[in-house]
Amino acid sequence: MAIKINIASLNEGSQQLELLSDSKELDLGDNFVKDPVHITLDLYKTVYQLDVKILIKGVLLLTCDRCLDIFELPFESSIQLIFVQKSSREEEINEDNIRTYYAHMRVIDITNDVKETIILSSPMKKLPAETKEGTCSWCGKSKAYWSSLIVEKDDDVL
Fold first, then answer.
1. Are strands 13-21 and 33-45 parallel, antiparallel or unpaired?
2. SS3 (DSSP) at 15
C-alpha cells in the first residue's frame, strides 16, 4: 500500500485532502507510531506544476532514555513538495523538495516523503515531559532518583 495522489483527476486550482494512514502502510514497524496518522494535503495544481503542502499529525511511541518504558509523544510536522512536469529535453532537478513527473503519469507517490518526515519528528533525547515538581510525567520518578543510580568509577582502581 502507498499514499498516492491521482494527479490526473485533480482540477486546476486549490484543493484540500484529509487522509488517515497507519504504521503498516508507511512501513514504520509495529512500535514506532500509534495508529492512525492524520495527513492533511493542501494541493495547488496548475498546468505544469503541483504544489503539495503536507501536515502530518500523530503520536510517536518512544522508549524513554531513563527508565526504558514506552511512552507516547504527540507530534506535528509539515513539508512542502513541488512536482514539476518534465519534458524529455530537461535535465534532472537536484533539489530536496522539487520532484519531476511526466505528462503521461496519472499518480504520484508521497509515501516515502511522509515516512521520512515522521522519522525525523522523533527527538534525539527521548524523555517524557516533566511535571512542575520535576518528576517524569510518565513514570513519576525524579531526576534525583536517576542521579542516585549513577555510579562513578575511579579509573585508577583496577
1. antiparallel
2. strand
